[in-house]
Specification:
Elements: H1 3-13, E1 18-19, E2 24-26, H2 28-36, E3 43-46, E4 51-55, E5 66-72, E6 84-87, E7 91-94, H3 99-110, E8 118-123, H4 131-142, E9 147-155, E10 165-171, H5 174-186, E11 191-194, H6 219-225, E12 230-236, E13 247-250, H7 254-266
Parallel strand pairs: 5-8, 5-9, 9-12, 10-11
Antiparallel strand pairs: 1-2, 3-4, 4-8, 6-7, 7-13, 10-12
Length: 268
C-alpha cells in the first residue's frame, strides 16, 4: 500500500457530511469523493436522496450478480470537526467513523483493484436509521439487479486482541461465509469473528477467532431486513467514536484490511 497516497486520500475526505434522514444537507465529504474519482474508471450513476452510487459501467451492462460495497459517509451529530493525524509511531488518530473505510475503498477504486461487478455506495443516515442502506437497496431492486452487500465500518471489537480486521454480523449463506472465513484464515493476520447471534456461530469459524458477543448494529442490519445477503468487514479502533476527540487505528491494520477487502471482491 502506498501509505503517503492513502494519507492524502484520508486527509481529503476528513471533512464533515450530514443528512436529515431524508437527504444530505452537508456534502463536503461527498464532494471530495467526487473530485477524487473524477479521472478514475468510476462514474457516479445515482446521487439521489441518501446515497451516491459509483460503478465502472451502467448497471444494466454489468454481468452476473452485483457485489455492493457500502460505506457510510454521515457524521454523528456530536461530531463538529473532522481530522486525521499521526499518533505516535504506530497509530493514526482521527474522527474515523466512518471516514476511514471511505478512504480505504477509495484507494482500491483509484487503483482500479475491484472487479467490474463491484459497485460502491456512499450512504447516509447510518448513525440513526440506516435509511441510506434502505434507499440503495430499493433502487437496485427497482432496476432489477440482484446483489449481495459487504458493509464497511469501524468497530470497538478486536482492539485489545490487536486484530487487523473483524468479520461481523453474518447475515449470509453458509456457502458465502465459508469463503469469507477461508479468505480471513489465508490472510495470515490476527482477526476475529463477531456473530450476529452468539448462540449460533457457524461451524466454519475457528474457536480461537470467535468473540462471543453480539455484533453491534450497523447497516448490515437494514440490508438483512431488506432481504439482502450481507456481512460487515470492520477495522478495530479504540476511543469514543462519536466524539470530536477522535479514535485510534493501528497503522499496521490498514493494508491487511485493504487486502482482505480486495480478496473478498475477487472470490465472491
Amino acid at each position: 500500500m502506498d501509505e503517503n497516497g492513502f494519507r492524502k486520500i484520508l486527509n481529503e475526505v476528513s471533512v464533515l457530511n450530514y443528512d436529515n434522514g431524508k437527504k444530505f444537507i452537508n456534502t463536503d465529504r461527498l464532494d471530495a469523493i467526487s473530485r477524487l474519482l473524477w479521472n478514475s474508471s468510476y462514474r457516479r450513476i445515482n446521487a439521489q436522496g441518501l446515497f451516491h452510487l459509483y460503478a465502472k459501467a451502467p448497471l444494466g451492462d454489468i454481468r452476473g450478480e452485483i457485489l455492493l460495497i457500502s460505506s457510510h459517509v454521515d457524521c454523528h451529530k456530536n461530531i463538529t470537526r473532522c481530522f486525521a493525524q499521526e499518533y505516535g509511531s504506530d497509530c493514526l488518530k482521527g474522527t474515523f467513523d466512518n471516514v476511514l473505510t471511505n478512504a480505504i475503498v477509495l484507494q482500491l477504486m483509484l487503483e482500479d483493484s475491484l472487479k467490474a461487478n463491484v459497485v460502491v455506495a456512499f450512504t447516509g443516515d447510518e448513525e440513526e436509521d440506516s435509511n441510506g442502506a434502505i434507499k440503495v437497496t430499493r433502487y437496485l431492486k427497482r432496476v432489477g439487479r440482484n446483489f449481495r452487500a459487504v458493509v464497511l465500518d469501524v468497530t470497538d471489537m478486536g482492539w485489545s486482541e490487536a486484530c487487523t480486521f473483524t468479520v461481523e454480523n453474518d447475515f449470509c449463506s453458509s456457502f458465502w461465509l465459508e469463503r469469507i472465513i477461508r479468505c480471513a484464515m489465508e490472510s495470515g493476520q490476527d482477526w476475529k469473528f463477531v456473530p450476529s447471534d452468539p448462540a449460533h456461530v457457524p461451524m466454519a469459524v475457528p474457536l480461537e477467532n470467535i468473540i462471543r458477543q453480539e455484533a453491534e448494529p450497523d447497516e448490515s442490519w437494514e440490508y438483512d431486513e431488506q432481504g439482502v445477503e450481507c456481512f460487515s468487514l470492520c477495522i478495530p479502533t479504540a476511543g469514543e467514536m462519536h466524539s470530536d476527540n477522535g479514535i485510534l487505528v493501528r497503522r499496521n491494520a490498514l493494508e491487511p484490511y485493504m487486502k482482505m477487502l480486495r480478496k473478498i471482491c475477487l472470490v465472491q
